[in-house]
Amino acid sequence: MKISKKDLTEKIRNCGLKPTSQRIAILLQLLSRRDHPSADAVYQSLKDEYPSLSLNTIYMNLESFAEKGIITKINVLHQSARFDGDISSHHHFVCVRCKKIIDLHNMKIPKIKIPKELKTAKVYFHQLRINGICEDCSN
Amino acid sequence: MKISKKDLTEKIRNCGLKPTSQRIAILLQLLSRRDHPSADAVYQSLKDEYPSLSLNTIYMNLESFAEKGIITKINVLHQSARFDGDISSHHHFVCVRCKKIIDLHNMKIPKIKIPKELKTAKVYFHQLRINGICEDCSN
DNA sequence: TTGGATGCAAATACTTTGCACACGG
DNA sequence: CCGTGTGCAAAGTATTTGCATCCAA
After folding, report:
1. CB within 8 Å of chain A, chain B residues 65-104
2. What does pTM read for this prediction?
């Protein structure tokens, strides 16, 4: 499907942001590609066509778009790697605001059927991650 | 349950690593606590008792332990934020080695029952993440 | 003794912040 | 014009790398 700049302009305006040329370019880039780029990957793809575009602008706008829900941020970003000594099967709730991680031991997840896309990969383990805002942060 | 140093030594040796005093201390620390510490958090807890222990050693060993499967690294993708232009409901496979993300659109996940630990939290969305090693990396 | 492990310091990577200028409404 | 958005540079934090020394086997 073709993505028109007009649609993008609308989409950006609808979520309360000014449809600047940079925002349109960034959103177009993200909707056109099938992978899951980092801010820098988007930057690399756009800098030839938009030499004045700054990486900073991409960081800010990807974050804004995700906040408005027109794109998704796959990894709630902890500033640092977090480790768990408990390797028994359990899942996690992550507060998107304070980044707190809460164990969910009592949560039963029905058996997962590994999809065919992964038939050749080695699956280690799966973890369900629930994102939200914890009690402390919701005040 | 009490964790004996003897058991830890065994555990470390069993996964092919030398049971140095630093490794034993780091693993003991991680297995004793109920939270999900960063490398620095582990460092802060240990540096009084082991003044010569370096943060670097903790980084390396937490990574090694996670690779051997005796602890878990919760956020595989913490080094850079990754975004997805596709906001339809789907899940992801993440290669723990090359960090590649593969979309799993065909995967049906039965309805999730939100556990009681979260009764006061606001749940935004949940994503199932399957961790493993992709075909390219498994050679 | 010997190769892996550690400690230190420097280097790198990612992201955020501060501020002056530019631009859309 | 007004206020948000952008670009640049600098700062901040997390992690990795290089290398000499150390230590468990």
Report:
1. 65-66, 69-75, 77-78, 80-87, 92-93, 95-96, 101-104
2. 0.86
